[in-house]
């Protein structure tokens, strides 16, 4: 019996070649913002400082367009919660800026950074000799012709007595470092989350918080002594009677009701404070973080 002829082989369709993906357009400004950044002001330079409570989270909430509109020359962040080797393009300043970052040894924790478009003198410093600061990425320094810029993130003691003791040790060590920074004789600012509300004007309900970490008598006394040593709390110097906040608890609609704490500072040497033309707090909106940003403007040298 003759075998049936084999079926015709299936027609092979030519494989369509995929078009090559277009090369990404070069980025000129802040991530997610079309067009170049705004030009710097000719006679002043601007600092923006913020505890971002996670750089990835804040970026998704609109941090970069916010910075584009703010038009800073220096940006200081705290509580980045991302390592330097994890940064993506959406977490970086515009091309041409200097970016320095202090990482915590523990991933996803703490961190401090300085970004600037001002000229930079020498290399950044991300270790300061304070054990906790170096271990947890709480100090980042960049020197510019205008000033020495330090982004600082002090620990919280709110989780219990053990962590409060760690915070107290850190503050004791920090005091010596702050004295040494002033003694360098350069204009200098230290900005960031110090986790201390200094006076009753810096907290919504001082009576109910008198035993709370961040408003303990010895913490407030530490801040008083620091300012007596020569440092200037720039916001309070320019707004002696204003009651405004930089942090709100996630509990009880604290942010919506503006029941907050002012625990973020721009601390300046006297020389630099004299060149300040403005210092203001962002306010409760936009809610990019549980903290608000601080802006400060200074006359150029």
Describe the structure.
With 301 residues, the chain is α+β, with helices and mostly antiparallel strands. It has one domain: Endonuclease/exonuclease/phosphatase (Deoxyribonuclease I, Chain A, 4-Layer Sandwich). The protein is 22% helix and 21% strand. It has 7 helices and 13 strands. The chain has a 6-stranded mixed sheet with strand order 3-4-2-1-13-12. A 5-stranded mixed sheet has the order 5-6-7-11-8. A two-stranded antiparallel sheet has the order 9-10. Strand 6 (148-153), helix 4 (161-183) and strand 7 form a beta-alpha-beta unit. It is globular, with a radius of gyration of 24 Å. It starts with 43 loop residues before the first strand and ends with a strand.
Write the layout of secondary structure elements.
Blueprint: E1 44-51, H1 55-60, H2 63-70, E2 74-78, E3 98-102, E4 112-116, H3 131-136, E5 139-143, E6 148-153, H4 161-183, E7 188-193, H5 217-228, E8 232-233, H6 234-238, E9 247-248, E10 260-261, E11 264-268, H7 270-274, E12 276-281, E13 294-299
Parallel strand pairs: 1-2, 6-7
Antiparallel strand pairs: 1-13, 2-4, 3-4, 5-6, 7-11, 8-11, 9-10, 12-13
């Amino acid at each position: 019996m003759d075998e049936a002829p084999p079926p015709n082989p299936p027609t092979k369709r030519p494989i369509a070649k995929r078009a090559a993906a277009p090369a990404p357009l070069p980025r000129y400004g802040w991530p997610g913002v079309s067009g170049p950044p705004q030009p710097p002001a000719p006679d002043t330079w601007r600092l923006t400082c913020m505890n971002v409570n996670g750089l990835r989270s804040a970026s998704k909430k609109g941090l970069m367009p916010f910075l584009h509109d703010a038009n800073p020359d220096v940006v200081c962040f705290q509580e980045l919660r991302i390592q330097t080797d994890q940064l993506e393009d959406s977490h970086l300043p515009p091309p041409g800026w200097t970016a320095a970052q202090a990482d915590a040894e523990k991933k996803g924790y703490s961190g401090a950074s300085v970004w600037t478009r001002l000229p930079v003198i020498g290399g950044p410093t991300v270790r300061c000799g304070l054990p906790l600061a170096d271990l947890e990425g709480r100090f980042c320094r960049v020197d510019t012709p205008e000033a020495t810029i330090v982004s600082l993130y002090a620990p919280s003691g709110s989780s219990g007595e053990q962590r409060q003791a760690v915070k107290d040790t850190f503050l004791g060590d920090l005091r010596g470092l702050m004295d040494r920074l002033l003694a360098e004789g350069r204009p200098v600012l230290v900005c960031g989350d110090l986790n201390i509300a200094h006076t009753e004007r810096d907290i919504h309900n001082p009576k109910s918080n008198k035993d709370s970490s961040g408003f303990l008598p010895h913490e407030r006394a530490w801040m008083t002594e620091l300012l007596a040593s020569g440092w200037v709390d720039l916001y309070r110097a320019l707004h002696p009677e204003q009651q405004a906040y930089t942090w709100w608890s996630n509990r009880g609609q604290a942010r919506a009701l503006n029941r907050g704490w002012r625990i973020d500072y721009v601390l300046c040497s006297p020389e630099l404070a004299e060149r300040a033309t403005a210092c203001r707090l962002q306010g409760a909106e936009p809610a990019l973080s549980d903290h608000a940003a601080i802006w400060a403007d200074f006359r150029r040298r």
